[in-house]
């Protein structure tokens, strides 16, 4: 089974990315053929700096490797190294409804918040994301809750393509999302009604994977809690509920087990326990990151090797896609570029 996911290139990966997505990438290596993509082409849909973009790509590669991705067992690559992603985006845009793209939450939020140019690329962002997965005929996509809408569009794009050009065949695989039971939507520690996010969150409410242990402890001990004193999940207790989810995810237990353990504890004691657990959880990742990040040549070699393998897989899909759409020279299977 092929498992695909993508992640934006930034060194600012936070606890939400880690628990909601990265941990599932690592686990998926045990279940199938994992393909993980650093989506630098998605990053250019908003204002960016070219030199920074390259650096942040290495940061992200090092974070993923530090978390446990093993280049011997999975394919880790940079999106812009595999030209089939952009080609398939164009082809899929012909079966994608414009109005649907304009209504996507992310487009509305980002275009609303942006003072500079709102690019056409921002509108096409979800089509590129669909192309990412469909080019590999992947059947599963591990993501956090916020990607649900993008996954639906991707599934529809595959279905429409097959209906229009498939002649009864599933040319493009309709993928399933895999959203974790616990930790699919980690919330900001200072405003637990908003998701933890690199762009929209508060600095004190966002725990970064690369934060120093002391900073992580401080942020968690300073997390806002709610009225009352009981450590339990409830709609009117978004702060405490979020911390329960975090501790459950970090320990790999059910949230109910955390509630039972802290049934007679106060908020202070509970927050100290969460802080300690998260510090212990992320400290080794940070240490491995620092070692890996120091060797850019080695990181580049891993990404290049990943791109070579990814290119082979995507190339095979595209031969079929082009043929079905009546594009390119007939019966001439282009050699791998
Ligand atoms: P990105 O880089 O914003 O986020 C990477 C992953 O982290 C998850 N995530 C969260 N999970 C739990 N709680 C949170 N607060 C939280 N914030 C983020 C996201 O759901 C995501 O899984 N569009 C994607 C990248 C992408 C992609 C793809 C994903 C491009 N192509 C193909 C899957 C398949 C994004 O911006 O992820």
What does the model show?
- With 337 residues, the chain is mainly α.
- It has 2 domains: 2-183 and 295-325, HUPs (Rossmann fold); 203-292, Tyrosyl-Transfer RNA Synthetase (Orthogonal Bundle).
- It is 54% helix and 7% strand.
- The strands form 2 sheets. Strands 1-2-3 form a 3-stranded parallel beta sheet, sandwiched between helices. A two-stranded parallel sheet has the order 4-5.
- Helix 4 packs across helix 7 (120-134).
- The longest helix has 30 residues, at 296-325.
- The radius of gyration is 21 Å and the shape is globular.
- The structure holds tryptophanyl-5'AMP.
- Tryptophanyl-5'AMP is lined by residues 5-8, 16-17, 20-21, 39, 42, 129, 132-133, 141, 143-144, 146-147, 150, 184-186, 195-197.
- Residues 5-8, 16-17, 20-21, 39, 42, 129, 132-133, 141, 143-144, 146-147, 150, 184-186, 195-197 line the site of tryptophanyl-5'AMP.
Helix content: 40-55%
Low-confidence stretches: none
Indicate the CATH class of the largest domain.
Alpha Beta
Architecture per CATH nomenclature, i.e. the level-2 architecture of the largest domain: 3-Layer(aba) Sandwich
Bound molecules: tryptophanyl-5'AMP
Radius of gyration, whole Å: 21 Å
Task: Describe the structure using short key phrases.
binds tryptophanyl-5'AMP; globular; 337 residues; Tyrosyl-Transfer RNA Synthetase; two-stranded parallel sheet; 7% strand; 54% helix; mainly alpha; Rossmann fold; 2 domains; 3-stranded parallel sheet
